[in-house]
Structures are given as structure tokens and as C-alpha cells.
Design a protein that fits this description.
- By secondary structure, the chain is an alpha+beta fold.
- Helices cover 47% and strands 18% of the residues.
- It contains ten helices and ten strands.
- Helix 2 packs antiparallel against helix 3.
- The chain is globular, with a radius of gyration of 18 Å.
Length: 249
């Protein structure tokens, strides 16, 4: 495998392109369990027929764990939105349609979203009173079993030259309430300084799914608390404000 063509880099991970393969290499601080769990989640999503890059192998490269998958030729929806601002409505509608298709799927062996959120809340730096309220909020949610991507943003959707859509980065996939997945997408738009696009997205999502906007908003303090665990300094002020239920509401 050749590791001389980096196509994407994020905290603790680098993705390389080598022929028809994409190689995601994890830093040494990623445990074997975390890498194997990500690969297992991706394999489970493969089985339900969603268009995603198929895993070829899990291996080690220069002593670091790596997941080797199919390379998908194309541009991300984020790139297409930036290059074609006149087609923004078309692209955001396509984006929502892809998310709705994912949410229509089921994969019973995936982690329960509510369980994941409870663990994240316990790991935050929020005070005990806020954590207590957030735990109760999660406990009050009905149990759903929709496939939730967990980081559904335009940069994770690749459109091929013939117009097919492939969704990448399944590290955070769970099964749970679609409104929580929508709340996370809304949050990620906002954290990128795209508040108008966040509102446009939410309006389209709620209309297409016949979901009350209040239900998505009910999840926002929870997903904000979950995101705060990453300790990204420039995000913390907004996340803490959102996670504090009294302030948010």
C-alpha cells in the first residue's frame, strides 16, 4: 500500500488514496477495540444495502491500525454546494433525502443511541445538576431503532460522476431516534458558522419527515453535551450554552 496521497486528515486519523482503495490510518492513541468497533459498525451497515464504501481489510501500517475500503470517485456534497451556490436548494434536498433513506433502515446489532448519549453525558464537564436533567431527558425518550449515522454532514456524502450517492464515515452509527440524528446535523452546521443553512436544513427535514421541529430541538442539548466531550476549544462556549437546558430553552 502506498501512503503518499493524503485526501483527508482529521483529529487522530489520516485517509490516503491508493488506486481503488481508501486507507484510513489511525494514530497510536486509538485502541484496537475502537478501530475494530468502527470496522464492525461499517460492516453491519454494508449488510443492509446502503451505498457505502465496502471494507476490504483491517490491518496495520507502520505499527498503526488501518481500515482499507473501496475508494469512491466523486465530489462531496460540501464541495458541490460550495462550487454551485445556485443549486443549494437542490443539494440540500438531496442531502435530506439520503438521510431519510438511511433512517428508514434497521440494523438490530448496532449500539442503542440512548445508551451512547447517557455515557457521553456522564463524561462531560457539565455540573451535576445539568447532567441529571440531561440523563432524565434521554430516559424520557421513546425507544426507536432507526439507523442513525451520527455525523451526517455534506462532507460525508460523495456524489459519483454518474450521480450515485455514497455515505462515508460510519464511526458514530447507532440505532435510535431520527430526530436525534437531525439535531446533530443541525448542530454541526451551526458549529461551522452556517446558521442559515442549518435552519434551511431543519425546515426541509421536518417537512419531509412530518416531524415537529420541537422534537428535534428537544434533542439539541443532548447532542451538544455529547459533542462537548471532544474538547474542541473553539466549540465549547456554544456547546455549553446549548447543553445547559435552562439557558437553551
Amino acid at each position: 500500500m502506498k501512503l503518499d496521497n493524503i485526501i483527508y486528515e482529521t483529529q487522530g486519523k489520516k485517509i490516503y488514496h491508493d488506486g481503488d482503495k481508501a486507507i484510513k490510518v489511525f494514530d497510536e492513541n486509538f485502541s484496537k477495540a475502537a478501530v475494530l468497533n468502527e470496522a464492525l459498525n461499517q460492516a453491519r451497515v454494508e449488510e443492509i444495502g446502503i451505498n457505502i464504501p465496502k471494507i476490504r481489510e483491517v490491518t496495520k501500517v507502520d505499527g498503526k491500525w488501518a481500515i482499507v475500503s473501496d475508494f469512491i470517485e466523486g465530489k462531496t456534497l460540501a464541495q458541490l454546494m460550495e462550487e454551485n451556490p445556485d443549486k443549494l436548494d437542490e443539494f440540500i434536498n438531496k442531502f435530506v433525502d439520503i438521510q431519510i433513506d438511511i433512517l428508514s433502515q434497521r440494523s438490530p446489532l448496532l449500539t442503542d443511541l440512548r445508551d451512547k448519549m447517557q455515557k457521553k453525558i456522564s463524561s462531560t464537564k457539565l455540573d451535576a445538576t445539568v447532567r441529571f436533567e440531561l440523563h432524565n431527558r434521554v430516559n424520557g425518550m421513546k425507544k426507536h431503532n432507526k439507523v442513525c449515522h451520527g455525523d451526517f454532514v455534506p462532507s460525508n456524502v460523495i456524489i459519483t460522476p454518474v450521480g450515485d450517492a455514497y455515505v462515508i464515515d460510519w464511526a458514530h452509527v447507532t440505532q435510535g431516534n431520527g430526530a436525534a440524528d437531525a439535531a446533530r446535523t443541525y448542530l454541526m452546521f451551526t458549529l461551522k458558522g452556517k446558521s442559515e443553512l442549518a435552519d434551511k436544513y431543519l425546515n426541509i427535514y421536518c417537512k419531509k419527515t412530518d416531524t415537529a421541529k420541537q422534537l428535534v430541538q428537544f434533542w439539541m442539548p443532548i447532542v451538544a453535551a455529547s459533542q462537548s466531550v471532544k474538547n474542541i476549544s473553539e466549540e465549547q462556549e456554544l456547546l455549553m450554552r446549548w447543553a445547559n437546558i435552562a439557558d437553551y430553552e
